[in-house]
């Protein structure tokens, strides 16, 4: 009843003559209906009806503020009223639209009500579902009939001005929110109504534009026949001989909008429609325009729309537009230079700065603003030709993005690139920026495709080598190795064009427009990473770029230029930051001959920027200083060592500045670490300065806020420290501080501190500074880390102890106890190798007996493999160093022959094998002692004997391998063969570096492996052995792999497929040379295998190849990707129904295959996205977002990666992604759902929300035109706000490295 008492005063005041009382009543009502705790009383329908009447009446109030507040109230009110009253509300609003003096007010209210009901319905509660159903019925019975009446040709309106834009906006909202529920008959009626509105000459241009949007939204839900009729109607109008320019513009706008809204269904019609659009920009009408002195505004609008439509066709329907590529490029090039109001003297002179004339170059150095000032003075107010040129630039950019791989070799650099460079002198700012952006896209595509075979790491290595010297022959060799064989001409063409690019860009860097300069810097950053030899380019562009960093080019005095631009305004600060980033790239890519002339200016500019008050400039300058110090060869500075002191002063100033931003201080600490590292062992920095710097680092290490950054800086210094550089006192203090951090809860800090300690101890130049007390302190803090519960920390701790033991430290009992505890659990990889290294060091120093006793006591209670390796290593090392140990090999031989405990026998066998593997000098046993134990009835002994037999065979293959071969040939049971495969495995695994050990036995081993492949229990280990054998002798066994792929037995083919996967890891380039010619043929044959399990193995193999040997598969992705895409499709024939008690359950046998296919696709995206067709990739990803839980999570991971490496492609699909996400997040768990189902749903929802945050963070303002995504993001914040907030905190916490 309390709500009833609240509503009664509101009803009274709504009818008051005083507008203030009406406003206050609506304000109270808004507070009531937006409160989650309040509901409208349901006991009295008349009260609610009176409330609705009062608010609707307020929409036509004479007071504007009352009207606005009434609009604001209706949306939340509609969510709290009964179903019949909701229908009544729709009726009242539609009637008011026709009768009101200002129909925009009730139209806006109706649109907001429809939108709010759509969002409310997505919450999928019982009440919202009922409201949603009522809203759908009301739209069908009330809203759409009213809209059809208003949209009907000749329908009277109260204003007499035709259809209002607000009415069209209502229809757009109806289609967006309830389009999938609209009756097909209504869609059939709406389509001709919209077309009539678009063709109505009396309708305003704004209304027609919104009608085009509405028609595109309708196309999403239209039937195929309705869409076909729409296209047919457009075609007939195109063919009309009396079509006006305005109608041409509208038709091409419709075509472009439909290609964006429903690309799959609209794409096939482009064969008919694209030629009509292309004829509008083929240039045939330009001569007629030349004869007419009047501005061709209408025709220019048609051209702009046609170019935009072609861009949309290319972006969303690239396959269908492939046949029109040449015509599209011709149109783009023609209108890129379309400027009827500007007469050029000569085409060559158009590009000031591209001539080789020395005088012109001198003029460029003293460029004033006359070429760029008063840009609007040459153009009429009616001249919109600049929009045509901008559209042409955007069109060419889309051509480059979608067809670069096909066109880079010839068309793009022969025709497009020179035209873009010439247009760098464009007089209109907006067009110039678009031209620069298009050129940047071309350069980046060239870089991505031309160097994708070598990968970024090889590129970086080559760049570093290039810096170290300017020997021409060496550089030419590197350059030829970097250019992949299938894309040689693109990078060479870019290199040929680079002088023009450099001179033109240098001129633009002096342009008064901040936007132009910042976009040019972005272009240059891409250019120098793409060029095989960027040195000449850097010589030209470095001086003006350094001037920007130094802020002596008038950057801060030209904000008006930026404001004049229509694009996102740059600032002097952002320009300097981008210029600093460019310098960082230049230090990596450039050679000495390019950097040396500008070095002093660079140092002064960077040092000055580091002292800037704006923290972003200062932080980036310090990062650039680190790059300069780390990557630039110190020899360059020999002529003027004061450069180091200049940087030193700036860095110290920021480290000591306590009021500076934390990020700036951290960057300063990193820069100081780089400076001390580079100058270590030199006289570039005086001793007093170095001492002060070390003191500052120690102070920062003791400060909690800067500790982690300081630890990482000291690690860098510790790796490179030269003799006598670090004082014993400083090292002692640092080790004490680092040791204290090993007890902290911050896992990132613990790990970094331990890695830094390892770097200090392992550096032979630092070891003399370690006193006995410091070493003892280290042992004390490391002892608690000797635990298998955290192997990430245990491995480095063991390595440090190994060095300390070699230096004479005696292991204390508690340390030996910690070492022995490691034998209780499995160890592999780095931690195991570190443990064995410590064992060798301790045994060599006479401390092996203590450890041996501990492991003997552990015995069979520990992990057999680890215990055996440790004891075997002690025995072998003790024998090598003539150490007297408490046990000998004979003791273990006796154990094998006399013990009745199987586990003890197994351990003894493994110890003998490990001792033989480690080269025990007294090992003289033959294979018989091991072979005899293969026949044991125990579960443990035979496998241990087989493994030990293989280990022993590594050291004496001539004696052991023939015995193994003989035993395998005599074996009649699969079990015996399985055991002997373990012997083969150990021999092959340890013979990769010594292939001569088994070269004479390889053929017999191969035959045995193929035989064993037919047994299920032997398939896995046989596959590994096959791979190892192929690695040892690829010339002999890769053809064998090809041959066995044709075996009729699927088990044999499966082993061969898995065997190839083993060859793709831990192999060198020499093996790749054998694999390169046949790898594609092998993979294609595998992926076409008729057996489902084998295809899954083949996808896993391709995944491994893309991850480990990307260069082998990148060139042939066109053959492999269609087979991967095929396996991501749900196949109904693999879904079967099984009976589980009284219930029937569907089992998808193809799910695991699809998961593997999507995993493989993810790996290929990471390795070679530049070579993939984005349309095909996103087609499968978006399909995967509607697949099973596991597949959806993989697709989310892919989107998180793609938004980083290909943001523009993601933006184009945001609405489709949002639709899938909203459907999944709206699913509610069943009442009888079990815990596992709830956990899976929670995991999937968190994955979607995490990806949503990642996408939104990267696309930002780029998603402003994707209404579907924006609506979904707002909906997600409303319905999953707490989860989003929690994920944001988790991401922030992870970024800081906080955690246990």
UniProtKB/TrEMBL annotation:
Question: What InterPro entries is this protein classified in?
Answer: ARM-like, ARM-type_fold, CAND1/CAND2, TATA-bd_TIP120
Key word Repeat present: yes
Could you list the residue ranges forming a coiled coil in this record? none
| Highest rank taxon of the organism | Eukaryota
**Per UniProt, which keywords does this protein have?**
Repeat, Ubl conjugation pathway
Q: Which residues form the TATA-binding protein interacting (TIP20) domain?
A: 1112-1277
Give the GO biological process terms.
SCF complex assembly
The keyword Thylakoid belongs to this UniProt entry's keyword annotation: no
Region Disordered, annotated ranges: 344-383, 476-495
The cross-references to Gene3D superfamilies, in alphabetical order and at most eight, read: Leucine-rich Repeat Variant
Any one Pfam family match given in the protein's UniProt record, by short name: TIP120
- Family per similarity comment: Belongs to the CAND family.
Name this polypeptide is given: TATA-binding protein interacting (TIP20) domain-containing protein
């Amino acid at each position: 009843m309390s709500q009833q008492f609240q509503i009664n005063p509101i009803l009274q005041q709504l009818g008051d003559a005083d507008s203030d009382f009406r406003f206050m009543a609506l304000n109270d009502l808004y507070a009531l209906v937006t409160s989650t705790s309040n509901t409208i009383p349901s006991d009295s329908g008349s009260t609610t009806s009176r409330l609705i009447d009062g608010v609707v009446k307020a929409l036509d109030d004479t007071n504007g503020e009352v009207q606005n507040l009434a609009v604001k109230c209706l949306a939340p009110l509609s969510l709290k009223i009964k179903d019949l009253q909701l229908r009544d509300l729709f009726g009242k609003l539609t009637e008011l639209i026709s009768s009101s003096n200002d129909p925009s007010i009730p139209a806006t209210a109706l649109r907001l009500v429809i939108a709010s009901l759509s969002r409310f319905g997505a919450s999928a509660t019982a009440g919202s579902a009922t409201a949603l159903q009522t809203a759908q019925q009301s739209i069908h019975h009330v809203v759409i009939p009213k809209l059809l009446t208003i949209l009907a040709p000749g329908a009277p309106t109260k204003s007499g001005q035709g259809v209002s834009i607000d009415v069209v906006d209502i229809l757009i909202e109806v289609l967006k929110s309830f389009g999938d529920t609209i009756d097909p008959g209504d869609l059939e009626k709406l389509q001709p109504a919209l077309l009539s509105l678009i063709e109505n000459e009396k309708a305003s241009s704004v209304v027609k534009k919104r009608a085009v949007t509405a028609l595109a939204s309708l196309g999403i839900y239209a039937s195929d026949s309705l869409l076909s009729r729409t296209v047919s109607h457009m075609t007939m109008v195109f063919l009309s001989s009396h079509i006006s320019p305005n109608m041409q513009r509208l038709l091409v706008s419709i075509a472009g909008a439909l290609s964006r809204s429903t690309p799959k269904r609209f794409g096939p019609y482009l064969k008919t429609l694209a030629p009509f659009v292309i004829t509008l920009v083929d240039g045939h009408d330009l001569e007629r325009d030349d004869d007419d002195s009047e501005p061709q505004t209408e025709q220019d609008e048609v051209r702009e729309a046609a170019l935009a439509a072609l861009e949309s066709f290319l972006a969303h329907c690239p396959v269908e537009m492939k046949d029109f590529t040449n015509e599209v490029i011709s149109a783009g090039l023609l209108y890129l230079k379309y400027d009827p109001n500007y007469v050029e003297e000569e085409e060559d002179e158009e590009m000031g700065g591209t001539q080789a004339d020395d005088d012109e170059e001198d003029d460029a150095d003293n460029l004033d603003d006359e070429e760029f000032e008063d840009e609007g003075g040459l153009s009429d107010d009616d001249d919109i030709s600049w929009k045509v040129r901008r559209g042409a630039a955007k069109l060419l950019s889309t051509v480059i993005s979608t067809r670069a791989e096909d066109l880079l070799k010839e068309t793009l650099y022969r025709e497009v690139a020179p035209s873009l460079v010439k247009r760098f002198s464009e007089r209109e700012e907006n067009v110039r920026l678009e031209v620069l952006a298009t050129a940047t896209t071309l350069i980046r595509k060239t870089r991505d495709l031309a160097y994708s075979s070598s990968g970024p790491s090889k590129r970086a290595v080559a760049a570093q080598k290039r810096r170290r010297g300017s020997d021409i022959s060496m550089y030419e060799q590197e350059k030829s190795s970097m250019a992949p064989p299938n894309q040689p001409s693109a990078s060479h063409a870019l290199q040929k064009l680079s002088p023009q690019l450099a001179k033109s860009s240098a001129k633009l860097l002096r342009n008064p427009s901040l936007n132009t300069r910042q976009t040019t810097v972005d272009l240059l950053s891409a250019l120098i990473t793409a060029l095989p030899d960027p040195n000449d380019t850097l010589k030209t562009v470095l001086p003006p770029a350094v001037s920007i960093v130094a802020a002596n080019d008038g950057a801060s005095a030209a904000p008006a230029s930026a404001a004049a631009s229509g694009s996102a305004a740059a600032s002097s600060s952002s320009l300097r930051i981008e210029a600093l980033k460019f310098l960082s790239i230049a230090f990596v890519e450039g050679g000495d001959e390019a950097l040396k002339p500008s070095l002093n200016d660079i140092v002064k500019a960077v040092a000055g920027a580091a002292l800037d008050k704006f923290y972003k400039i200062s932080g980036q300058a310090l990062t650039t200083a680190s790059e300069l110090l780390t990557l630039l060869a110190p020899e360059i500075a020999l002529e003027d060592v004061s450069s180091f002191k200049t940087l030193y002063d700036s860095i110290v100033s920021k480290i000591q500045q306590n009021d500076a931003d934390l990020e700036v201080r951290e960057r300063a600490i990193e820069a100081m670490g780089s400076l001390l590292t580079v100058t270590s062992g030199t006289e570039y920095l005086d001793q007093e300065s170095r001492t002060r710097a070390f003191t500052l680092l120690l102070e920062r290490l003791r400060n909690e806020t800067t500790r982690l950054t300081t630890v990482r800086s000291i690690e860098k210094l510790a790796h490179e420290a030269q003799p006598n550089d670090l004082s014993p006192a400083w090292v002692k203090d640092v080790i004490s501080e680092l040791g204290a951090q090993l007890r902290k809860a911050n896992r990132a800090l613990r790990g970094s501190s331990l890695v830094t300690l390892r770097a200090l101890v392992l550096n032979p130049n630092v070891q003399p500074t370690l006193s006995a007390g410091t070493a003892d302190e280290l042992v004390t803090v490391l002892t608690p880390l000797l635990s298998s519960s955290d192997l990430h920390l245990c491995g480095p701790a063991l390595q440090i102890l190994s060095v300390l033991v070699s230096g004479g430290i005696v292991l204390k009992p508690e340390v030996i106890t910690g070492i022995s505890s490691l034998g209780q659990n499995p160890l592999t990889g780095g931690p195991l190798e570190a443990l064995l290294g410590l064992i060798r060091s301790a045994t060599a120093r006479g401390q092996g007996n203590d450890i041996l006793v501990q492991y003997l006591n552990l015995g069979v209670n520990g992990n057999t493999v680890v215990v055996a390796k440790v004891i075997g290593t002690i025995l072998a090392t003790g024998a090598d160093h003539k150490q007297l140990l408490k046990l000998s090999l004979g003791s273990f031989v006796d154990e094998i022959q006399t013990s009745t405990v199987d586990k003890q026998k197994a351990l003894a066998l493994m110890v003998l094998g490990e001792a033989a593997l480690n080269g025990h000098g007294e090992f003289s046993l033959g294979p018989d002692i091991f072979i005899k134990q293969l026949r044991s009835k125990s579960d443990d002994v035979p496998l241990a004997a087989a493994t030990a037999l293989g280990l022993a065979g590594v050291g004496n293959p001539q004696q052991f391998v023939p015995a193994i071969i003989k035993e395998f040939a005599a074996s009649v049971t699969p079990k015996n063969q399985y055991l002997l495969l373990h012997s083969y495995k150990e021999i092959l695994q340890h013979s990769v570096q010594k292939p001569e050990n088994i070269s004479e036995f390889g053929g017999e081993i191969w035959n045995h492996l193929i035989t064993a492949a037919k047994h299920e229990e032997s398939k896995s280990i046989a596959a590994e052995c096959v791979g190892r054998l192929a690695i040892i002798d690829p010339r002999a066994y890769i053809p064998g792999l090809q041959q066995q792929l044709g075996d009729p037995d699927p088990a044999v083919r499966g082993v061969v497929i898995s065997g190839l996967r083993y060859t793709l890891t831990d192999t060198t380039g020499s093996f790749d040379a054998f694999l390169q010619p046949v790898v594609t043929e092998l993979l294609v044959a595998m992926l076409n295998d008729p057996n489902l399990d084998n295809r899954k193995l083949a996808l896993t193999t391709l995944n491994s190849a893309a991850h480990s040997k990307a260069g082998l598969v990148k060139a042939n992705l066109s053959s492999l990707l269609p087979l991967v895409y095929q396996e991501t499709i749900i196949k109904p024939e693999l879904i079967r129904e099984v009976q589980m008690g009284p219930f029937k359950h569907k089992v998808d046998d193809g799910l695991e295959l699809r998961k593997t296919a999507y995993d493989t696709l993810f790996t290929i995206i990471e390795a070679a996205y530049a070579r993939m067709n984005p349309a095909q990739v996103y087609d499968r990803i978006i399909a995967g977002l509607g697949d099973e839980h596991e597949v959806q999570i993989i697709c989310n991971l892919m989107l998180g990666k793609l938004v980083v490496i290909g943001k523009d492609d993601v933006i184009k699909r945001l609405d489709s992604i949002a639709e899938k996400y909203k459907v999944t997040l709206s699913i509610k768990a069943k009442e009888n759902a079990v815990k596992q189902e709830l956990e899976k749903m929670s995991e999937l929802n968190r994955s979607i929300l995490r990806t949503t945050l990642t996408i939104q963070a990267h696309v930002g303002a780029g998603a402003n035109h994707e209404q579907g995504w924006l609506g979904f993001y707002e909906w997600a914040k409303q319905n999953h706000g707490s989860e989003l907030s929690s994920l944001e905190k988790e991401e922030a916490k992870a970024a800081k490295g906080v955690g246990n």
